[in-house]
Amino acid sequence: MWSVLASGYGFGLLLAAPVGPMSLLCMNRTLRQGFRAGLATGLGIAAADAFYAFVSVSGLRLVSDFTAAYALPLQLLGSLFLGCLGVKGLLQGRDGEQEERRSWRNFNFLSALLLTLANPATVLTFLALAASLGHASGSSLLLPSGIALGSSSWWLLLTLTVNWLSRKVSPAFIHRMNVISALIFIGFSLVSLIGVINKLY
Fold first, then answer.
1. Three-class secondary structure of residue 38 per DSSP
2. What is the mean pLDDT of each run of 10 residues along the chain (201 residues)?
3. Which helix (H) or strand (E) element contains residue 102?
4. Which of 144, 156, 77 is nearest to 111 (CA)?
5. Cα distances (Å, whole numbers) of residue 136 to 46, 50, 80, 127, 148
């Protein structure tokens, strides 16, 4: 039992740790909006990971079939949304963080949740993990629980670290990092859109 939970925890850490667009999004929001905004973003990602892990171990074919059938539309929506976040970051001035800290916390969680859910490849990763652990372990609900804990632990650690570092740098540096992150979001969005177009044609 505990081995399954530990396996899920380790996999959750490994899944969350690589630097990608979602990591940059979490770090950027922590720098601009504070610890709670960054943590809300990380927990949204962890919730999506836990959901797809639950789908994998519980055999909910309806959800997995839906993500497989609508993989391209989901990828398209995720790409456009990521691009919009990038454009928003470029247009955002150096002020305005305080307003976002008060009113955008739910948006931070939901946007991260939906962006992660819009990546159907995630469920394939969890299906492969469940199969590698065997029937008994791979069908245990302790697996998605461990993944949720592992992923949440990583995002908490990352948010705490970035929030501590944000107190050591100037507002001008934070603004430059926001612009760089926004450009990277737009770049990821364009690459993903090109991938969708190539699959269509």
1. helix
2. 77 79 88 90 91 73 60 77 83 55 72 83 64 53 84 94 89 83 86 82 72
3. helix 97-103
4. 77
5. 24, 18, 39, 14, 19
Distance CA 88, CA 90 (A): 5
Three-class secondary structure of residue 10 per DSSP? helix
Distance CA 124, CA 197 (A): 22
Helices and strands (H and E) in the chain: how many: 11, 0
Report the candidate in 38, 44, 43, 48 with the shortest Cα–Cα distance to residue 123: 48
- Retrieve residue 169's tokens: 């740098």
Sign of CA dihedral 116, 119, 123, 126: negative
pTM for this prediction = 0.77
Structure tokens at 174: 């934070």
The amino acid at residue 28 is N
Rounded to whole angstroms, the Cα distance separating 37 from 53 reads 25
End-to-end CA distance of the chain: 47
What distances in angstroms separate CA 32 from CA 171, 183, 193, one per listed residue? 9, 16, 27
